[in-house]
Amino acid sequence: MDIQKAMGIIEGILFISGEPVNIDEIAKVLGISNEQVMECVEQLQHYYDKPYHGLMVSKVGESLRLTTKPNIFPYIEAIFKPKIKSQLSKAALETLAIIMFKQPITRNEIEAIRGVNSEKAISTLQEKNLVFEMGRLDIPGRPILYGITEQCMDYFGLESIEDIVTDK
Fold first, then answer.
1. How far apart are CA 34 and CA 84, in angstroms?
2. Using CA atoms, how far apart are residues 91 and 124, in angstroms rounded to an integer?
3. What does pTM read for this prediction?
4. Deepest in the core among 26, 28, 43, 166, taking most CB within 10 A?
5. Is 4 exposed, middle or buried (0-12, 13-18, 19+ CB in 10 A)?
6. For the chain, first and last CA: distance in Å?
7. Which three-class secondary structure state does DSSP give residue 22?
């Protein structure tokens, strides 16, 4: 497939989606390799890099999304006046920070760090799709292991968890 045509198709897919789209899915639909998809994305990023463009292609984990550049947000906000999302409580933010830096982590480990019960905070984070159950620890009681979601990484502008965790 011609790279210019692939770029146009990828741009259209990302525009229509509004949500991150998995790189593997894009490659499969276009009948090209993941490397070729990323080559197209690099060209699109170079195209959007100019100051007169308000869009950019962002990588979120193993997915891509078309977003607006951060510097134009005040103008978008002025026109659309989005509803303010309900903010996270201090307890939920503390819990989320612990999960982000220590994942995978159990509730008991979170509570040992915070010094208080974290069941409600974890439940709130799950409801907002910021954390998920990664599995269970292979010890008696089989406690749940928690980690952050791609939506959480997207919200904080992270391409991968390595963006915040340099060493464990």
1. 37
2. 10
3. 0.54
4. 26
5. exposed
6. 42
7. strand
